[in-house]
Amino acid sequence: MQRVIGLIAMGMLFLVSCVGNRPIDKKATPETRALYKNLGKLAKNHTLFGHQHATEYGHGWFSGKDRSDVKSVTGSHPAVIGVDFSGFSGRSPEAIQQAKDELRQNVVDTYNRGGVTTAAWHFSNPVSKGGFYWVDSLSLPAVKYIIPGGEAHEQYKEILRGIGEWAHSIKGADGKLVPIIFRPFHEFDGGWFWWGKPHTSREEFMQVWQFTVSYLRDSVGVHNFLYAFSPDNKFNSEADFLERYPGDKYVDMVGMDNYGDMGRDRYAIDTAAYKLKIISDYARKAGKLAAFTETGLESVPNATWWTNTLLPTLRKYPLRLSYVLVWRNDTQSPTHYYAPFPGQVSEQNFLQFYQHPYTLFEKDLKNIYKRRKFLGVF
């Protein structure tokens, strides 16, 4: 009898494990399912390093062929390349098409090299001026306008159809659709974006998230997206973190953006690590992926920031983080950059960070879009 009970328990655990190791999209492409599975496996002992706009431009350059500041320092591109859907709306049709064409080439190139792409969405306000930021004299609280029943709902559906058409067009050299980790409505717990907490109710935010995922997946037929949920660092408990969570059926990855605790406002790495633990613990409990979706220190003036601040934060607890991503290196600004370039003060320390067995870069990734079948599962 005890053996029967034990076998039943093992079967239940196996079922939970299977459910927790697949994307929310039951029709996700094989490459998307493999990425999800492999990110979860790698997170047990490693974290992938990411950099926003790494291959589009860098400190003092634009549109280099197979170039990134990270590669100039280490010999490898970041494992995760951050891009943005900001150019997909709020512009002329010609400008939108150009943005889509350029971004398509970027993500296909990353896929062909074996790297991973995550897309943020600095979504220009679809019902008022002000861009993606909240501007008191200009902005309207657009979320209530674009959810079902809202005055701009059909307009929002048209924008999503444009994203979906683009998602259907990103095919690698192998003819497969490129998986994307899509991270809409980020830092929603702050007030600087029009989708932020002061400008929309909890119910409205959850509704726009749920509709966005459902429409892309079920109506437009996008099956190469994983969906990442990432507030800023304003939470101190799981309940705070989940205050606007749209539900496990609508999220593949949980994360946070945190600059404030990492040197911008203060050095509070114990606090940052604890917040990451909240995220990682919830991900393991809910069968999700977890990530440190944005961080960094502008200009990296701290010569040992990589091994004395970032690495200890990532390793204080036994976290399972798929990746950590630092923000962009502006092409013109002498101070707006978050990753080193040759000659930058933290270059040598970054090389130590690169060489650490915990961190993975693009050269370290092997067949992240493939997986082996085991006993007929997947």
UniProtKB/TrEMBL annotation:
It is an enzyme of class 3 (hydrolase). It catalyses: Random hydrolysis of (1->4)-beta-D-mannosidic linkages in mannans, galactomannans and glucomannans. The active site is at E187 (proton donor), E294 (nucleophile). Pfam families: Glyco_hydro_26. It is found in: Secreted. Its main location: secreted. Keywords: Carbohydrate metabolism, Glycosidase, Hydrolase, Secreted. Its EC number is 3.2.1.78. SUPFAM superfamilies: (Trans)glycosidases. Residues 30-363 form the GH26 domain. It comes from the Bacteria. InterPro entries: GH, GH26_dom, Glyco_hydro_26, MANB/E. Belongs to the glycosyl hydrolase 26 family. This is Mannan endo-1,4-beta-mannosidase.
